[in-house]
Design a protein that fits this description.
It is a single chain. The chain has a 3-stranded antiparallel β-sheet. The protein is elongated, with a radius of gyration of 25 Å. The protein has 4 helices and 3 strands. The protein is 48% helix and 16% strand. It is α+β, with helices and mostly antiparallel strands. Helix 2 (52-63) crosses helix 3 (91-100). The relative contact order is 0.16. It binds copper (II) ion. Pfam families: HMA (PF00403). This is Heavy-metal-associated domain-containing protein. InterPro entries: HMA_dom (IPR006121), HMA_dom_sf (IPR036163). GO terms for molecular function: metal ion binding.
């Protein structure tokens, strides 16, 4: 009987300590997430484009930049909102990545070869106003 009680105490002790450790791990991850959110910078700038397919291409190009957390291009405003980790990338790298996919930004002209490869509906007007 004593042995049974003893082994139950041991099991309870093991379960208790492992739960305690898990709790510690969770709070550590939360701290890391919170601090990386603090380092995020949000910017918005003009990007030319026409339609939903343009939106996909522009946002995909932006998200492929390491350090970019979110990208949201507004078809009507011709403007993108980007949040990114300043420790991993910078504003001009994001402009360049979008331009490489064929789209004009405020700062960098879209790559013409990539532009030629865009579907017909996406061949936007290069004199289109941005940040409408
Ligand atoms: Cu398009």
């Amino acid at each position: 009987m004593k042995k049974v009680i003893l082994s139950m105490v041991v099991i309870i002790a093991i379960v208790f300590t492992s739960c305690k450790n898990e709790g510690k791990k969770d709070s550590n991850t939360n701290n890391i997430e919170a601090s990386s959110k603090m380092a995020m910078k949000e910017i918005s700038f003009g990007v030319r484009g026409n339609c939903g397919m343009c939106k996909n291409t522009i946002e995909k190009a932006t998200n492929n930049v390491e350090g970019v957390a979110t990208a949201n291009w507004d078809k009507d405003k011709k403007q993108i909102k980007v949040s990114f980790d300043e420790g991993k990338t910078d504003v001009i790298s994001i402009h360049k990545a979008i331009a490489a996919s064929g789209y004009d930004t405020e700062k960098v002209e879209g790559d013409l070869n990539a532009y030629e490869g865009l579907p017909g509906c996406c061949k936007y007007d290069h004199s289109m106003e941005m940040n409408q």
